[in-house]
């Protein structure tokens, strides 16, 4: 697939968590023909067709910035509705219930899970390239070698989500997806052609995946009401 042909489409909005290299993320989408912009408000999060939640560094600092700006609920609504949303590295962990990095500080709670410190024989933090495995049922995630920069991990793919896994001293969740939502523990914006292809698939397929998931949810609700 030729990523360069992606030239039009909905707005790609980037959430400034205060703990992310926004320029690397913006550059990755520019290379795909998009003009991403940093979002300014919860209303922007609601309106944008695509929203990216990036981050590196402290779970506590990332959550504090989201709370300071009053953006928690807007992000929760997007993810719970399975609208096109991408969490990168710390962004994946912020979507979860909590992290051992910041005891007592709740995450967004969009998916069940708590991130724990990497353990085993691997060096912490994990910095560099590593191989991941992904199931054939995944819409966005694929097997390959991608770039990581993390000290914490999810141990299990959240229930109801399709996930990819890797190993760094011990097994960890490399990413998970459902509907139009994709969360990556790795950095697709730093993962060369594989990362660009992943972002391209998300841009192309997420709106349809979100609509299909919404339709399935509506049918489930109707069946439960009968």
Describe this protein's structure:
The protein is an alpha/beta fold. Helices cover 33% and strands 25% of the residues. A hairpin with a 1-residue loop joins strand 10 and strand 11. The termini are far apart.
Brief rundown of the structure:
The protein has 226 residues and is α/β, with parallel strands linked by helices. It is 33% helix and 25% strand.
Runs with pLDDT <50, length 5+?
1-8, 217-226
Q: What is the helix fraction of residues, given as a range?
A: 25-40%
> What structural class do the secondary elements suggest?
alpha/beta
How many β strands by DSSP? 12
Radius of gyration: 16 Å
Succession of helices and strands: EHEHEHHEHEEEEEEEEH
Strand content: 15-25%
Distance between the termini: 44 Å
Principal-axes geometry comes out as globular
* Integer average pLDDT: 90
Q: Looking across the biggest beta sheet, what order are the strands in? A: 2-1-3-4-12-11-10-7-8
Count up the helices.
Answer: 6
Question: Sheet bearing the most strands, described?
Answer: 9 strands, mixed
Throw out a few tags for this protein.
nine-stranded mixed β-sheet; single chain; 226 residues; disordered C terminus; alpha/beta; three-stranded mixed β-sheet; 33% helix; 6 helices
Which helices and strands appear, and what pairs or packs with what?
Blueprint: E1 12-14, H1 22-30, E2 37-38, H2 42-47, E3 50-53, H3 59-69, H4 72-80, E4 85-88, H5 90-94, E5 98-99, E6 114-117, E7 126-133, E8 144-150, E9 152-153, E10 162-168, E11 170-178, E12 181-184, H6 192-225
Parallel strand pairs: 1-2, 1-3, 3-4, 4-12, 5-6
Antiparallel strand pairs: 6-9, 7-8, 7-10, 10-11, 11-12
């Amino acid at each position: 697939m030729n990523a360069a042909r992606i030239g039009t489409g909905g707005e790609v909005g980037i959430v400034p968590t205060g703990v992310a290299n926004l320029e690397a993320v913006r550059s990755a989408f520019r290379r795909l023909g998009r003009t991403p912009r940093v979002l300014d408000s919860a209303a922007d999060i609601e309106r944008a067709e695509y929203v990216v939640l990036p981050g590196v560094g402290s779970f506590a600092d990332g959550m504090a910035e989201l709370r300071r700006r009053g953006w928690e609920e807007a992000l929760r609504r997007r993810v719970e509705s399975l609208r096109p949303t991408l969490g990168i590295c710390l962004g994946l962990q912020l979507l979860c219930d909590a992290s051992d990095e910041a005891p007592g500080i709740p995450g967004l709670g969009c998916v069940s899970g708590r991130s724990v410190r990497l353990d085993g024989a691997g060096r912490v933090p994990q910095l560099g390239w590593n191989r991941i495995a992904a199931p054939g049922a995944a819409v966005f995630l694929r097997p390959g070698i991608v770039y990581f920069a993390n000290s914490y991990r999810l141990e299990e793919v959240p229930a109801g989500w399709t996930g990819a896994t890797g190993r760094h001293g011990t097994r960890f969740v490399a990413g998970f997806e459902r509907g139009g939502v994709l969360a990556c523990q790795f950095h697709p914006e730093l993962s060369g052609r594989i990362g660009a292809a992943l972002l391209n698939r998300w841009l192309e397929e997420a709106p349809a995946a979100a609509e299909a998931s919404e339709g399935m949810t509506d049918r489930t609700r109707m069946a439960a009401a009968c």
